[in-house]
Amino acid sequence: QVQLEESGGGSVQAGGSLRLSCAASGDPGSTRCMAWFRQTPGTAREGVAAINSLNTPIYANNVKGRFTVSRDIAKNTLYLQMNSLKPEDTASYLCATERGPWCGSLSSTHYDYWGQGTQVTVSP
What we know:
Elements: E1 2-7, E2 10-13, E3 18-26, E4 33-39, E5 46-51, E6 57-59, E7 67-72, E8 77-82, E9 91-98, E10 113-114, E11 118-123
Parallel strand pairs: 2-11
Antiparallel strand pairs: 1-3, 3-8, 4-5, 4-9, 5-6, 7-8, 9-10, 9-11
């Protein structure tokens, strides 16, 4: 079993920054691969960022150059630094984990465990 707890969401104006954290606990084998997704009401979960098996960050095109994903292995925590935020970034941000062995997918169907999400609201 895996528990994921996101934090760091909030309300900012366009151009602002936020840093999200996702602390994972439970079965280490199930948290080998971690990623960030986001979702707005009535829409499917959208992959935002992940770290692949070569420890290379993977980003959705619409966040490249603005978001940075990183991971503290010792703390089993995933981070998402979000800069130059836009109103269209407004969403609930969720982290997700899977066993792998290949990490880095931005498809929600690959992931087994999900956090509850942290809300990010960006005003114009």
